[in-house]
Backbone:
């Protein structure tokens, strides 16, 4: 049984937690896209860990974790993450593998990410994580990127030097275009003076990184197919979410990869025929971090201060797992959920953070949009249109009591059960998991 797990909204749905829970039935866990823009939280045995590149199954002994070819991997971030894992008693050696085909995020991609964002006019800023994701995927499709396998080649450092020199020329142009105040861009781990990187410094950094990561690099395609032939079960871990997908999300306010389930095959080397099940992780309300349209938005750090949204943000601790940026919050959007069900083929929902809604006397659900005076039940194509829609709401009674101590779905307060049932009914698919707290134990497994 091979399962793809995707984010159904704008990321941070609780994918890390659900992957950790589902790993008990898997042999392999594979990340298939994104990079260290992700922050996947796992709370197990009283310890909280935030994973950026290493698959969230790593805490389960004996499971093999793979960073697939669809990922853009920053070697320096991965080394840091491996060290952090070791320091908390988990040694990934021998069960973490990086595909030889995985593209790399280099320090100069991070510099470009910052410089491009600084050159965008205020209304055009994407609010990227600054992790170099866009420039790394751009390098991949323009065929100038490095793949992990290249780190093992003799001429790797020579090529790195060439890329730094080329990037410095681009950075010079971006410096002239910048609209932000100030004169500097910063990337932790390297020196940037006057928008220029030092080729010697960068080459020295990658010499060390290549030596450290060499033991983890492997052609993972035959490895996964061999596992499949031996009847092993593979769990494919998406990062970000459907509405951040480069094709299906709120373009251009998106990430640069395909978090949707189709990306799982492209990003791992498994074929569509190998996928048995798609799990959509979805919050019982909605959040978004970074810029772009968000129809049911109630609260953000700038201009929206609705008390219901503020309560969601507070109870849900809605801050970026890595960036610590405050997340925007709003009611559940069933138009988003239905769209996610369609483009991903969601079989089962893993619904998270129901407990956050415990104290609300009334809860709204967005069931359709009104666009320029017309009611629509589908996702508009353009971000401009989505920014103009008004949500059509229905309202339900809240349950106003604690759900985080419930251990069986039958014991949920009836009004909480009615809310979950209504969300599933509006969204399509079936309920597989209900999460009622951040820890591994706070999970009701219904069908998975
Ligand atoms: P991911 O990027 O999809 O893995 O999600 P994040 O880890 O960025 O954000 C999800 C946050 O919600 C984390 O802080 C989790 O610990 C937390 N979380 C996950 N499931 C639940 C839940 O059911 N209830 C509550 N209260 N918190 C949850
Ligand atoms: P996980 O896997 C939430 C958002 C950024 C920005 C946009 C583009 O933890 O759910 P990028 O750095 O990718 O070029 O930024 O995408 N974004 C995320 N939002 N969760 C994430 O990952 C995200 N990864 C990127 O905030 O709006
Ligand atoms: Mg996250």
Residues:
């Amino acid at each position: 049984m091979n399962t793809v797990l995707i984010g159904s909204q704008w990321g941070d749905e609780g994918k890390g937690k659900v992957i950790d829970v589902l790993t008990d039935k898997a042999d392999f866990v594979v990340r298939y896209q994104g990079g260290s823009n992700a922050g996947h939280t796992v709370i197990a045995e009283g310890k909280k860990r935030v994973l950026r590149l290493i698959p969230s199954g790593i805490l389960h002994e004996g499971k093999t974790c793979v960073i697939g070819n669809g990922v853009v991997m920053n070697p320096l971030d991965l080394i840091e993450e491996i060290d952090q894992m070791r320091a908390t008693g988990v040694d990934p050696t021998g069960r973490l593998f990086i595909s030889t085909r995985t593209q790399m995020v280099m320090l100069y991609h991070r510099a470009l990410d910052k410089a491009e964002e600084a050159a965008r006019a205020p209304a055009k800023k994407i609010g990227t994580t600054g992790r170099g994701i866009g420039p790394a995927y751009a390098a991949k499709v323009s065929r100038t990127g490095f793949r992990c396998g290249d780190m093992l080649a003799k001429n790797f450092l020579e090529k790195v030097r060439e890329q730094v020199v080329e990037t410095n020329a681009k950075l010079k142009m971006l410096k002239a275009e910048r609209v932000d105040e100030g004169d500097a861009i910063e990337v932790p781990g390297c020196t940037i003076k006057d928008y220029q990187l030092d080729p010697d410094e960068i080459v020295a950094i990658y010499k060390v990184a290549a030596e450290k990561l060499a033991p983890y690099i492997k052609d993972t395609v035959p490895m996964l197919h061999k596992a499949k032939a031996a009847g092993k079960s593979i769990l494919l871990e998406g990062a970000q979410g459907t509405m951040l997908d480069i094709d299906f999300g709120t373009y251009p306010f998106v990430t640069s990869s395909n978090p949707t389930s189709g990306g799982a095959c492209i990003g791992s080397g498994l074929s569509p025929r190998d996928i048995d099940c798609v799990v959509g992780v979805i919050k019982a309300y909605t959040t978004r971090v970074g810029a772009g349209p968000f129809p049911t938005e109630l609260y953000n750090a700038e201009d929206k201060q609705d008390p219901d949204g503020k309560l969601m943000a507070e109870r849900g601790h809605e801050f970026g797992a890595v960036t610590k940026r405050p997340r925007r919050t709003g009611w559940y959007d069933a138009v988003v959920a239905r769209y996610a069900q369609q483009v991903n083929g969601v079989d089962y929902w893993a619904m998270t953070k129901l407990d956050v809604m415990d104290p609300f006397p009334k809860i709204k659900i967005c069931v359709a949009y009104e666009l320029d005076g017309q009611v629509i039940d589908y996702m508009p194509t353009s971000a401009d249109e989505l920014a103009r829609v008004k949500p059509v709401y229905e309202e339900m009674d809240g349950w106003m009591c604690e759900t985080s101590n419930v251990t069986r779905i039958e014991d949920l307060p009836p009004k909480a059960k009615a809310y979950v049932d209504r969300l599933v009914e509006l969204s399509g698919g079936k309920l597989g998991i209900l999460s009622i707290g951040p820890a591994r134990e706070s999970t009701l497994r219904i069908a998975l």
Observations:
- The radius of gyration is 22 Å.
- The chain has two domains: 3-95+219-445, 103-215.
